[in-house]
Amino acid sequence: MIEDRYSLRVSALEILRKNLKRLREKQRLTQQDLAERAGIDYKYAQRIEAGHWPGLQLKTIEKLAEALGVPAWRLLKPARTASASASRANDQRGAA
């Protein structure tokens, strides 16, 4: 059970890291730009994106999301993969 909770936590943080980088780059922001907008230390923003998040709190995730102009849940939502989208489309066609 402990391993499952750890895996879930690591997976959620990995999703956060990837989404944070993807959204930041999509808006052509540097890590320093994002940190300034979020009101957090640049080095801390850099560590979060690199996967080192000592003491990461929901409040920090909310600040980063606000700086990117998205709701906080978007940073924690798994990205849809091409195979998942194709599978969903096949399921919908089969149901029709």
Itemize the secondary structure elements and their pairings.
Layout: H1 2-26, H2 31-38, H3 42-50, H4 58-68, H5 72-76, H6 82-95
Helix pairs in contact: 2-3, 2-4
Keywords: DNA-binding, Transcription, Transcription regulation
InterPro entries: Cro/C1-type_HTH, Lambda_DNA-bd_dom_sf, TransReg_Diox_bact_type
Organism: Opitutus terrae (strain DSM 11246 / JCM 15787 / PB90-1)
Taking all residues together, what is the mean pLDDT?
82
Distance between the termini: 40 Å
The biggest sheet amounts to: none
Helix-strand pattern: HHHHHH
Name the CATH superfamily assignment: lambda repressor-like DNA-binding domains
Q: Please give the radius of gyration in angstroms.
A: 16 Å
CATH fold topology: 434 Repressor (Amino-terminal Domain)
- Quaternary state of this entry equals single chain
Shape: globular
Number of helices: 6
Question: What is the count of distinct domains?
Answer: 1
* Record field, number of beta strands: 0
